[in-house]
């Protein structure tokens, strides 16, 4: 940065009241706020202030955190809280869901844990087993032993999601060594508004044959994810979204699928 530009930056912070500078920075983005903090010591104190970073947090963040498994996070500065929530999901809804922020925008991300899903025969020990894995954020995941019909559904109310945001839903899973039945058949993935038949539907291999490209992607936490579909959330007025995994060809039995949950997060951020 040239000396003249640096002087103008310093003059900018001296001419305007601190509250005005904080408001201007809060109307930018978390990335821009971090850049502003590097300009000068005077600007850093404003750019790092609670007045700025509280604007980047969801309006209902206090309610969400106070009802979570980590209410002590409310004692953090707003900037520290923002980055903690960006990199460390917290458990909510009796530890059956998780909440996180998308780090670039502060938009809400949720994961429905396996216990928050409706799983056909999920409470039948001969078909499914509830177990714990150290790499999961939840205390239990669902592992099925053997099934012919596979039907898993997750629901989330649009009103708790960020408005004017394009969301995608992802099945978060892995296959164990005894996997069977997923290489021969695709599964149906669907995202739709509850009570309506219209909605995106796609077929995908969870364990693709050698001549088929891998559709699932590895996450950094040891799990796989595959996109189930996407939807636009305007202002949360569309009721409840349903995310469905289905394979009902009774001629093939299936085993070895482990489900951590269904994650919903903003898509195409920055495009």
Indicate the mean pLDDT: 89
Termini separation: 28 Å
Estimated share of beta-strand residues: 25-35%
Strand/helix succession = HHHHHHHEEEEEEEEEEEEEE
Helix content: 10-25%
Largest sheet: 9 strands, antiparallel
Shape: elongated
- Provide the low-confidence segments as ranges: none
Number of distinct beta strands: 14
Report on the architecture of this protein.
By secondary structure, the chain is an alpha+beta fold. Helix content is 21%, strand content 34%. Strands 1, 2, 3, 5, 6, 8, 11, 12 and 14 form a nine-stranded antiparallel β-sheet that branches. A five-stranded antiparallel β-sheet has the order 4-7-13-9-10, with no helix packed on it. β1 (90-92) and β2 form a beta hairpin. The longest helix is centred in the first third of the chain and has 13 residues, at 3-15. The mean pLDDT is 89.
Break the fold down into its secondary structure elements and pairings.
Blueprint: H1 3-15, H2 18-26, H3 30-36, H4 41-47, H5 50-53, H6 61-66, H7 78-87, E1 90-92, E2 97-101, E3 108-113, E4 118-119, E5 128-131, E6 141-144, E7 150-157, E8 165-180, E9 187-193, E10 199-204, E11 217-218, E12 224-233, E13 240-247, E14 255-266
Antiparallel strand pairs: 1-2, 2-3, 3-14, 4-7, 5-6, 6-14, 7-13, 8-12, 8-14, 9-10, 9-13, 11-12
Task: Provide a compact summary of the structure.
This protein is α+β, with helices and mostly antiparallel strands.
Key structural traits:
7 helices, 5-stranded antiparallel β-sheet, 271 residues, 34% strand, alpha+beta, 14 strands
